[in-house]
Amino acid sequence: MIRETKAAATAEAESPLSLKRRARRMGRILAETHPDAHCELDFTNPLQLAVATILSAQSTDKKINEVTPKLFARYPTAAAYAGADRAELEELIRPTGFYRNKATSLIKLGAALVERHDGEVPGRMTDLVALPGMGRKTANVILGNAFDVPGITVDTHFGRLVGRWRWTAETDPVKIEFAVGDLFEKRDWTMLSHRVIFHGRRVCHARKPACGACTLAKLCPSYGTGPTDPVAAGKLLKGPRVAELAAAAGVPAP
Ligand code: SF4
Fold first, then answer.
1. Which atom of ligand 1 is nearest to the CA of 226?
2. pTM: predicted TM-score of the whole model, two decimal places
3. 168 and 185 Cβ atoms separated by less than 8 Å
4. Is 235 a catalytic residue?
5. Please, what are the domains in the chain?
6. Exactly one of 42, 61, 127, 155 is catalytic; which is it?
7. Does the active-site annotation cover 172?
8. Per-residue pLDDT tens over the stretch 115-151
9. Helices 173-183 and 136-146 sit at what angle, rounded to 10 degrees?
């Protein structure tokens, strides 16, 4: 079956309007494909999300969620992190990797929050990125998920996928954030981020993307990067909704 589409064949010459239309169509398919997309870090307030997001660098959300219940109980406030016993804090977060650097970040974050924001996590980008250990990616996660302020989270999945989709040729995360932001309504940014990341985790893997079992195949200029055979591709699908993902792509359940 010839899957390559006009959009794919003419990707080099795609006008900004065609790109926006194709991106939004893909965004709608992503919404149907991943209705369960959400922030996978467990948290109940902005401070917990800030801490979990800092810990998530070079780790998995699953690992972070194993560590955070004890951590959040032990350090319920910014002041508690500021005054933490370093050895004890390091021990609690050790399974997340890079625990010495992360402990430093958490202690400094706690101190800065107490000093500058009465112990509260601020809900503005300019204030967030001025905090220790906080880049735009972390800030966007916090804004989007704890404050309902739309944000695009450019992690490795996001960067890889939007490159494959030729939504942008940028490689710098901040430039990617702005380029993709231009393609979508602001109100859609946060959920779009979750859906793209879910697609990266479950379908469009770094090595061997499941092209033959992908709902975006018809609109993706990189179709064929991974196996196109439906059975072989179906086996590459990951996560708890493998059967639904296969059905959505019209291929046999693996
Ligand atoms: S899995 Fe293949 S077809 Fe689907 S988005 Fe990734 S590269 Fe494109």
1. 2
2. 0.90
3. no
4. no
5. 6-33+153-249 (1.10.1670.10), 46-146 (1.10.340.30)
6. 155
7. no
8. 999 999 999 999 999 999 899 999 999 999 999 999 9
9. 40
